[in-house]
Amino acid sequence: MSEFKRLREKVLPNLLDARCERRNYRKHPIDSDSPYRNExxxxxxxxxxxxxxxxxxxxxxxxxxxxxxxxxxxxxRRSVAERLVKVENRLNPMGLRLFIHDGLRPIExxxxxxxxxxxxxxxxxxxxxxxxxxVEEVEKYWARPADTDASPSPHATGGATDxxxxxxxxxxxxYMGSTFDDVSVLAHTDYFEHFADSRRFxxxxxxxxxxxxxxVMAEEGFVNNPNEWWHFCWGDQMWAKLTGERAxxxxxxxxx
Length: 256
Hints:
Distance between the termini: 44 Å
Helix content: 25-40%
Low-confidence stretches: none
CATH topology: Muramoyl-pentapeptide Carboxypeptidase, domain 2
């Protein structure tokens, strides 16, 4: 069996435990003495990885505008980026490559979505919801902006990345069953494990492609946010909490 076929047919693990474990991950300790603690940031383009910062673009549904405070470059911690290169090298013989949407994220972007954009959407959908519940709903998908080095939002560390897969020859993205940044259960990594209709090619294709992305990343040591099929991390608090590591490697990263 080819590697491509094997990974597309490999059923995802039960992610319910991961959803439970993910709660309060930002209380997990960060090792101030970790050898990775002050690791440098690298521009992914320098390592021949492909991507375009989603939030600086205008062709970025559902926003269709460059987000205030966004940058065009994609930075990640060196160890994270080098692991992505290993994933890329594994994908290339399958005719595939990674396409990266986001890495280190300015706090202004995080604050825009957490404080402004997403609360407005929640209030549209649930006009009678009180403020506490609005915040709870927002934080299912948008972490609080980094406020202290002990509790950074994942994308403030340089250890988290948002990505998908594309075909090398055409450059087209593989079908994943939802848009990037969808804020519903449709974005849950294992959605199509439970709700795919085998008579719908769209469902079975999305399920197979999410499996492929999940396993090719997980087998290189990355952890997936179970609420977002596109979000993977290494070295941050979510990674440490979900893998049982005593402490995370990365706190807040400073832009070069």
